[in-house]
Amino acid sequence: MTESYEVVDNRPEERRRSVWASPRTWVMLLAVCTAIGLLEGTQAWLASAGSGRFPEMRWYEGLASSLPSWYVLGLLVPAMFWMARRFPVREGRWRLSLLAHLPAAVLFAMVHLGASGFLSNMLLGRSGMESFRTTVLGLLGFYFVIEIFFYAMIVGFAHALDYRRQYRERERHAAQLALKTSRLEGSLTRANLESLRMQLNPHFLFNTLNAISVMALKGERHGVVRTLTLLSDLLRVSLENDAQVIPLRDEIAFLERYLEIEEIRFKDRLTVMMDLAPDTLDAEVPTLVLQPLVENAVRHGISRKPGAGTIRIRSYATADTLCLEVADTGPGFGHSMESAGTGIGLANTRARLEQLYGANQAMQLEATPEGGALIRLRLPLRSRSLHDEVIATKSPFAEPRTA
After folding, report:
1. What pLDDT is attached to residue 395?
2. Is the dihedral of CA 201, 238, 379, 365 positive or negative?
3. Verdict on whether the full-model pTM lies above 0.70
């Protein structure tokens, strides 16, 4: 919070000071005062030349009577800006501010008209206190109310500039907060995804090592060696790839390695059928999104039903939606449909989909007509070419299998 207040309060104060310290500001102010003074002096000269009611004056005299007034006004502008900043007219303190601005307006009128009259007399060659007093009283009589309006107008302009500055500072500060919030949300989302992924990998590793232990106890040396080789291959490509999403074809390549391990375990009891639409192979999917679904089908479907079983993996696209299905011919969900999907693998998959896609995803659990279980994922259809920034340049899942 301290850094935020420094950004909002200190920098604008430095900017206000630097405006009046800049020669450019004074040059512009001098140019404006000169231009208005020249116009007013020329107007007074023309008025005296075309009217018999006023004594005719020379152009120099017209300028001498108008330019000093505008130059003095230019010198007083910073003081009025300071008053506007020191006593802002806003809710909660407008009475105090008005009490400060009223005498300041009167003082401004007297100083402005007095200094203008003194300089004009000097330029016109008029000397003496009586001449100065007559000039100032005449100016006060004609211009006092106008001077008050001048003061109010300049102070109001200073308020408008200050309100504009505060509005822009609030916008800038809000944009900074929104950017920080966005970055924090992105970091939190990635951290959550990494956490879920780290939960999934040990879960998969534990089940595979348990299968290797069973084969070792049965004396199946070839199966143990082959499974360890495939497991090391899976761990290597899994650890080398840190992308959150990959093309479906790479996910299938990883899944085939896992399925080979399961086929070694179940031998002729497991049959895998894949029906993958060609136009979906380049679609992006979360890394390791299919493996826990297939593992769930093997563990709760094929292994719990005597005899051979089949796992069907299907992908297809409808409009802007990618559909992935994993079905098995096991006993199905039965009476546990309400508690289905609460295991580590499926629960983590559901959480990862929510983190990545929010409400633009769905995971449905259904019973197949044959009595088995079906899990269907609906994801936004996004091609790899549109999301190269979040997909690894070369995914290790695309490497050929280890012989």
Report:
1. 43
2. negative
3. no
